[in-house]
Amino acid sequence: MQKIGHFINGKKTEGGSGRFADVFNPATGEVQAQLALATKAEIDDAVAKAAEAQVGWAATNPQRRARVMMAFGALINENMDKLAEALSKEHGKTMPDARGDVQRGLEVVEVCMGAPSMLKGEFMADGGPGIDLYSMRQPLGVVAGITPFNFPAMIPLWKMAPALASGNAMILKPSERCPTVPLMLAELIKEAGLPDGVLQVINGDKEAVDALLDNETIQAVGFVGSTPIAQYIYGRACSNGKRAQCFGGAKNHMIIMPDADLDKAADALVGAGFGAAGERCMAISVAVPVGDKTADALIERLVPRIEKLKVGPYTAGDDVDYGPLITAASKERVKGLITSGAEQGAKLVVDGRDFSLQGYEDGYFVGPTLFDNVTPEMDIYKEEIFGPVLSTVRAKSYDEALDLTMKNQYGNGTSIFTADGDTARDFATKVNVGMVGINFPIPVPLSYFTFGGWKKSAFGDLNQYGPDAFRFYTKTKTVTARWFSGIKDGGEFHFKAMD
């Protein structure tokens, strides 16, 4: 049985806790590796070593740090297929989806190649008589990233690239369900020239998380996961005086107006709702057609598209649309929510509960599922399902559809499909959601903007990647300077402010 440990001081280590977690193949249900779970002592030792390494890294000028990012990006490109295959094997994603996972992380690395321009301060000459003022952005020190299973490459790269480019050291605690790719990335960035100890990858469970949150050396914590855990981490980190940036769950709505191109809307819903088995915080899980005529026509288009979806293991090739869920517990939870939706009165148009794949009967597969006539009181509407389930909530008007989106507790992403510019502009202006798509189903911003939700989808003032990431991982120091020149006259010095 393969054993997976940690990456400390530039090399892989086995870990000494004696505690392990099983790493499964989601397509077969078989245990494929055992993962060492770090103790508090191991965490504290890794943090101490990172603090030592960070001093020299912070003193390295930003351009040289950017060169490490350039070399790192090139190595990610060279190893794209290896990274994607390792990711698919542990997560269950199809190979095209896994490559996309790596690619979206790589794009943030590419932005960090221009880190020097992000780290510039401000300057004002003659703010007062002979007085100059300037500010500088300096790294925080040691920071931590706690990342989820659903994007084992992308989100670790979203965390580590700007943190490291800013001159910090990082302790990365990836999901214990998909640990291999973060360890591979650590080896690649070492090869790119990152000094040993600046990036430490520690695997663990809640004991490791709490050790990171309580360690006094760690200055900031970034997290992506469920809302309850995001709230917990945000509260504990802040109470310990740390910066915190915690992203939680989502219930993303897509409004379909009567004037929308319904074929394009249906294609968008199938891709956004069922891609990656729905295990995306930006997945569209609620379709909101406006008017019964629109709803009937949309359902008519969705059913044949959904029934044609191919579900299978990543080894089946690039024509598979999505793979298994991450765990057996996830599969049972999703099937339970589908059952509750039917029992609570929603119309189950396509039922994926009995899906089975020959030769993979023990895998964590759930077939694509479509509901109609869902109401906001139902569990399938209130809870984040995180599976291949699309709920249709019919709205009588645009205002009702907008109100439905705005009253939802989550505010990660939303979109509207319409041919009317006034409606689209009104929606984008009014809706209280962090990322908005117009005729675009999954509005994840490009890497030189910034990613973040509102309401219970995010805790903290600053977003991931883009300019906000550099603000989060640095602190501003402002200097007020006045210089004097001495003029010798008869043995005495008379001082005047320099011009």
What's the structural blueprint in terms of helices and strands?
Blueprint: E1 2-4, E2 6-8, E3 11-13, E4 20-25, E5 30-36, H1 40-59, H2 62-78, H3 80-91, H4 95-112, H5 115-118, E6 123-128, E7 131-139, E8 142-146, H6 154-165, E9 169-173, H7 180-191, E10 199-201, H8 206-214, E11 218-224, H9 227-239, E12 243-247, E13 252-256, H10 262-274, E14 284-289, H11 292-307, H12 328-343, E15 347-350, E16 369-372, H13 379-382, E17 389-392, H14 398-407, E18 410-411, E19 413-417, H15 421-430, E20 435-438, E21 454-455, E22 458-459, H16 466-472, E23 474-482, E24 484-489, E25 492-497
Parallel strand pairs: 1-5, 8-9, 8-11, 9-10, 11-12, 13-14, 13-19, 14-17, 16-17, 19-20
Antiparallel strand pairs: 2-3, 4-5, 6-7, 7-23, 12-22, 15-16, 18-21, 24-25
